[in-house]
Every structure is written in structure tokens, then in C-alpha cells.
Inverse folding.
């Protein structure tokens, strides 16, 4: 099957393989560069990177690879009620998390100035840094940002979970559309309707979007091997985005315990939940999932929920515990085979040859 597709040409890569970007601090320069150096597109989830650090990050990745790579941001940086909390609101939410803080030996934190960096400031820093590719989720950047990308030669790629989102991205002039099926691990990046109402599978979504837009489509969700890449290309996609298979590699920034679960025999089911960040994400259920699920209506909005959980996660990781951390995973995890990027890329390329 030919690998020189429109997406491959537009991105300047050798093969139709894109590493999905990981937020929450589990992207690494080593992972991104390893994928890009093998002819795919490495991607760094930068939504929790401070604007003033984005240029530094771009230089670090550029020093590790001369090949194209992507920086990924979240266009919508807060949900209603999540931009700022009063002290009274903060104090009302904290008791939900207090037992975990006490269990892990943590003091009650002070409210931060920001629960999440503002997208506008991050986008300005990204434009200044000029990465080869700017990928984004949870919305469409402003016309000004997209025009600046074109002027600076930055390729743009936006995630869509529905037909309407794909059409909105095309109308805005985005270069590539990532058709993200509900099988994918991590967050459901819906932005025109609630994520729970935007649950197209990759098989259907890729075909439907490909028939309705003129820009190249990238399929994401449920792909871990060459068979999945072949299927995506057969359905009309111009490349495949692979997340969980790269997350399970040694080069990613997740924990060894998370990797062990991904490669283990026990992970037969995943679940969609807002328990960890306030936005819907596909995860491996654990104790934190089980205990917060019944309290869903009490939880704070994104990004406040994610801020509280991130404090719990840091302490749990330090204690080598997996019961109180976020365990992202796609539905296809039981088919994982490879534990490092060279082995995974070699297998993918052999299947494509």
C-alpha cells in the first residue's frame, strides 16, 4: 500500500504514522524525537507548558531531531465556572479530595492564580517558536492565529469528533483534520456538542468525514499496528494517529506501573469518565475512578478538577502507586506488543512495506 499520501507530503514526513500527543506531563522530548527520527511525526502535548517555556521546548525538540514534529495545544482552556474560583468555592470543593491529600501526607493547597495556562498566550508563544506542525484539540483557533500559521509556514491539524466539527475546521482553513474515534485513549476533544453526545467510532467517522471535506484526514483511535494503519488508509485516511501504543513505550513519560498495566493481561476494558480532569477521557478504571464516579455531579469543572487530581497524582507517583493516578488507555490496548519506539516503528514499517 502506498505510504506517500497527501498528509505525508504536507507534513514533510516519510510514513503515514503520527504519534498522538499526550497531555498531563507524559509527553517527552525523547519520545517525540524517536518517532520523528524514524520517519513518523512525533507530537508533544504542550497544553500544560507555560507560554514562556514553549520556545525552550521547541529548541529542545529541535536539538533532538531535524525532522518535522508537532506541538499540541488545547484551544478551550476552561469549561464554564472553571476559569476562577472564589475562596469560598475552593473550600467547598476541597473536601472531595481531602481524604486523598491526608492519605498521601499532603497539606491543603492554596488556590493558584491560574488553574490552566491561557490558550491565547500559549498560541502567541507557539507562533514565535515556529514548530513545523501545530496540532490542537477542543476547538478552532482564531482566524488570526491560523493566518499567522500559514504566513510562518506552520502546518495546522485539528481534531474532530463529529461531522460538524470537521466541517468547522475545514471552513476555518485548517490544513489537516484528525478524525478521532471514541476508541481512542485519553480525552474526547469535542467542542461543538457534549463529548458524551459525540461518540463516533473511528471506522464510521473516518469514512464520513473523508467524503465531506477536501482536506486530508488522519484517522485516530483503535490503531496499534500495521493492520490498523492499512485499514485507516483503505477507509480514505491519509495517515494514522497512534496513541496508546506509543504511550506504552519506554520513551514516554508515564509511569512504569502504567506501562505494566497497558502490557498486562488484566486490561480488557476501559471506561469514559470526567473524574480525572473534568473532561471526558478514556481510562483504565482504578480506585480513584471508582470512588469519584458516584460523585460526578459534585466535582468541579475543568481545569479545576484536573488541578486537584494532579496534586494527588504527583504524590501517588512518588509513592509508586497506580490506584490514585490517571491511567489513560485506548480500547485496543490488549493488542499491544512493543515496548520501545524502534521496535514499534520497525513493525509498523514492515507491515506497510
Amino acid at each position: 500500500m502506498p505510504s506517500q499520501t497527501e498528509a505525508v507530503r504536507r507534513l514533510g514526513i516519510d510514513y503515514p504514522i503520527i504519534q498522538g500527543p499526550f497531555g498531563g506531563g507524559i509527553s517527552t522530548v525523547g519520545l517525540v524525537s524517536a518517532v520523528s527520527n524514524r520517519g513518523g511525526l512525533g507530537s508533544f502535548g504542550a497544553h500544560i507548558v507555560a507560554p514562556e517555556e514553549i520556545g525552550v521546548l521547541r529548541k529542545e525538540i529541535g536539538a533532538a531531531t531535524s525532522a518535522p514534529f508537532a506541538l499540541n495545544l488545547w484551544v478551550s482552556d476552561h469549561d464554564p465556572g472553571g476559569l476562577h474560583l472564589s475562596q469560598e468555592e475552593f473550600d467547598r470543593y476541597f473536601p472531595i479530595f481531602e481524604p486523598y491529600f491526608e492519605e498521601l501526607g499532603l497539606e491543603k493547597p492554596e488556590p493558584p492564580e491560574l488553574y490552566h495556562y491561557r490558550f491565547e498566550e500559549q498560541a502567541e508563544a507557539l507562533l514565535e517558536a515556529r514548530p513545523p506542525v501545530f496540532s490542537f484539540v477542543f476547538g478552532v483557533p482564531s482566524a488570526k492565529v491560523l493566518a499567522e500559521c500559514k504566513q510562518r509556514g506552520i502546518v495546522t491539524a485539528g481534531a474532530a469528533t463529529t461531522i460538524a466539527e470537521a466541517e468547522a475546521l475545514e471552513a476555518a482553513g485548517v490544513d489537516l483534520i484528525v478524525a478521532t474515534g471514541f476508541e481512542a485513549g485519553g480525552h474526547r476533544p469535542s467542542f461543538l456538542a457534549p463529548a458524551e453526545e459525540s461518540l463516533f467510532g473511528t471506522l464510521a467517522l473516518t469514512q464520513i468525514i473523508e467524503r465531506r471535506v477536501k482536506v486530508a484526514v488522519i484517522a485516530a483511535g483503535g490503531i496499534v499496528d500495521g493492520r490498523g494503519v492499512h485499514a485507516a488508509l483503505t477507509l480514505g485516511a491519509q495517515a494514522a494517529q497512534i496513541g496508546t501504543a506509543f504511550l506504552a513505550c519506554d520513551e514516554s513519560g508515564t509511569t512504569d506501573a502504567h506501562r505494566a498495566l497497558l502490557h498486562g493481561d488484566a486490561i480488557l476494558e476501559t471506561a469514559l469518565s470526567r473524574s480525572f480532569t473534568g473532561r471526558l477521557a478514556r481510562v483504565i478504571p482504578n480506585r480513584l475512578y471508582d470512588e469519584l464516579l458516584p460523585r460526578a455531579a459534585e466535582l468541579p469543572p475543568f481545569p479545576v478538577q484536573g488541578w486537584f487530581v494532579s496534586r494527588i497524582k504527583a504524590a501517588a507517583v512518588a509513592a509508586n502507586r497506580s490506584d490514585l493516578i490517571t491511567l489513560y488507555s485506548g480500547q485496543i490496548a490488549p493488542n499491544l506488543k512493543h515496548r520501545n519506539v524502534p521496535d514499534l516503528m520497525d513493525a509498523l514499517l514492515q507491515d506497510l512495506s
